[in-house]
Amino acid sequence: MGDNSGCISVKRYPFREGTVFTTDPKRSSKMTTFIPKIEKLSSCVTRILGCNPGQMTLQGTNTYLVGKGDSKILIDAGEENNSEYISLLQTELKTNKWFISDIIVTHWHGDHVGGVANILQDVQEASSAKVHKFPKLQPPESYVGAAPLNFIKDKQVFSAGGVSMQAFHTPGHSEDHIILELKEDGVVFSGDNVLGEGTTVMEDLYHFMKSLQVILDLKPSLIYPGHGPVICDPIPFVENYIQHRHKRESQILNQLKENRGNMLTVEEIREKVYKDLAASLHTPAEMNINLHLGKLLKENKIDSVDDGNVKKWKVSEEMKPNL
Ligand SMILES: [Zn+2]
């Protein structure tokens, strides 16, 4: 058992200005923050970089060792067969005489779950760790590599390593996504629901927006994301993102209202909403519009009809003209 004090931050974060967090092709973003391979972020949290840099992973997946004492919870496990990451993790554990009691995976994507089997097999200090994950619906899963999965329930509390963490099911980026709130100091581990910088992809915008609200409601003091630097201004950061999505959604809905009686294809919506967009950005723009259309459909604000091979969209009959 650890002491009852909160986690003490060992780092002061400058307020970052002009951060862009968007999937919108008209807004650009660039990576600017250097992330060291190993960094102690507070008395309870050490971040170890997954050493898997790439377009989708930024400088790599952030994995976090959490706990006050020698026993640690590992959040996310990096990708499969990354010997540099395994060696970093191993050295950090050995040097500090730490061991891993639990591995919590935020979601099924390979850059978060891929390293679990390697860690259990190759890192002596983690060989008996329990592995936890929110269940995926399709296909159902019960193992990661050779490790049996312990299924996480929404709002489940983990007490280990002298800290308490609560899991919240936050689908949208993926159906099985969770975030974790470290109760000691109110920080949130956001997985891929919120990235430190750059863009995130999502399966379902309807659920994703609700999940962002779950993060806001927790009023986090900091966000430790699955990729990119620590977010030191979480509330304006997430609110800004929500507002931007609402603005884009109203533009799409307004086009459908203005063309009432004329059903529109996604290409026609794109031409009206994203004017003068370079041809190379047409596909990402249409993917973005499709996410919004899926959300509006779930909210019964629009209807769709398959006209031959083309899907067309119109505002729903129940929507009053001036709403
Ligand atoms: Zn992901």
UniProtKB/TrEMBL annotation:
Entry GO terms, CC: mitochondrial matrix
Gene3D superfamilies associated with the record: Ribonuclease Z/Hydroxyacylglutathione hydrolase-like, Winged helix-like DNA-binding domain superfamily/Winged helix DNA-binding domain
MF terms (GO), sorted A to Z: hydrolase activity; metal ion binding; RNA endonuclease activity; single-stranded RNA binding
Species of the source: Octopus sinensis (East Asian common octopus)
Full protein name: Endoribonuclease LACTB2-like
Domain Metallo-beta-lactamase, chain residue ranges per copy: 60-227
Keyword Metal-binding set for record: yes
UniProt keywords, alphabetically: Hydrolase, Metal-binding, Zinc
SMART domains xref list: Lactamase_B
UniProt similarity note: Belongs to the metallo-beta-lactamase superfamily. Glyoxalase II family.
